[in-house]
């Protein structure tokens, strides 16, 4: 089982936002800035409280860890924010997209892929654990709660979840993005002293 310290989490936040900024800027051919507003670890038993923040009609993408660690990574955005983001990334005027098509869903999934891998790569490098994430998918809020219930039942009492609350701006337009890692990992109490 992987063990992480607060210092590793903070490094992942800083290095991850730099990597994600670079990758999203290249992909979108726009000026993108990724900034981690909060990076913290919480006990698994508190994870369901997080989903109170995920609104009923939010756009939710997820990717499952397939190697190195158990769990999933989730990106959540309010629907209006996601529609603005896909318009911008796909070179359309704002408020063009009313209903997401496959290209739009692909944009959201790729945004998750870049963000999650930027943070996970640094966490893995710091802990010498090779974290591989699977192909992103999209789910509804109710499916997400069901997935989290399954993970929560497999978690032991001292396992933690990571939260990276991320602000994303594209050409100086701000977007609020929540990125969560619900990994089965433990906090390194010794390193945090």
Would you mind describing this structure in some detail?
- With 193 residues, this protein is α+β, with helices and mostly antiparallel strands.
- It has one domain (3-187): Chemotaxis protein chec (3-Layer(aba) Sandwich).
- Helix content is 40%, strand content 32%.
- It contains five helices and eight strands, in the order βαβαββααββαββ.
- The protein has helices at 6-28, 47-50, 79-89, 102-127, 141-154; strands spanning 3-4, 32-43, 59-67, 71-77, 132-133, 137-139, 159-170, 173-187.
- Strands 1, 2, 3, 4, 5, 6, 7 and 8 form an eight-stranded mixed beta sheet that branches.
- A hairpin with a 2-residue loop joins strand 7 and strand 8 (173-187).
- 37% of the residues are buried.
- The model has no long low-confidence stretch (mean pLDDT 84).
Domain unit count = 1
Distance between the termini: 21 Å
Largest sheet: 8 strands, mixed
* DSSP strand count: 8
Highlighted features:
193 residues, globular, eight-stranded mixed beta sheet
Task: Give the secondary structure arrangement, pairings included.
Elements: E1 3-4, H1 6-28, E2 32-43, H2 47-50, E3 59-67, E4 71-77, H3 79-89, H4 102-127, E5 132-133, E6 137-139, H5 141-154, E7 159-170, E8 173-187
Parallel strand pairs: 1-8
Antiparallel strand pairs: 2-7, 3-4, 3-5, 3-6, 4-8, 7-8
Helix pairs in contact: 1-4, 3-4
């Amino acid at each position: 089982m992987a063990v992480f310290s607060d210092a590793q989490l903070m490094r992942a936040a800083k290095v991850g936002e730099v990597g994600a900024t670079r990758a999203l800027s290249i992909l979108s051919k726009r000026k993108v800035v990724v900034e981690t507003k909060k990076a913290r670890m919480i006990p698994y038993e508190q994870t369901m409280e997080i989903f109170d923040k995920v609104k009923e009609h939010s756009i939710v993408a997820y990717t499952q860890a397939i190697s190195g660690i158990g769990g999933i990574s989730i990106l959540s955005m309010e629907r209006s924010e996601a529609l603005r983001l896909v318009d911008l990334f796909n070179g359309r005027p704002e408020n063009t997209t009313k209903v997401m098509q496959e290209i739009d869903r692909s944009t959201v999934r790729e945004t998750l892929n870049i963000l999650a891998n930027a943070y996970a790569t640094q966490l893995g490098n710091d802990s010498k654990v090779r974290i591989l994430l699977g192909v992103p998918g999209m789910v509804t809020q109710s499916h997400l709660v069901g997935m989290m219930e399954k993970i929560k039942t497999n978690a032991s009492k001292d396992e933690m979840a990571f939260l990276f609350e991320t602000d994303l701006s594209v050409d100086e337009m701000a977007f609020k993005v929540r990125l969560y890692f619900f990994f089965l990992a433990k906090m390194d109490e010794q390193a945090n002293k």
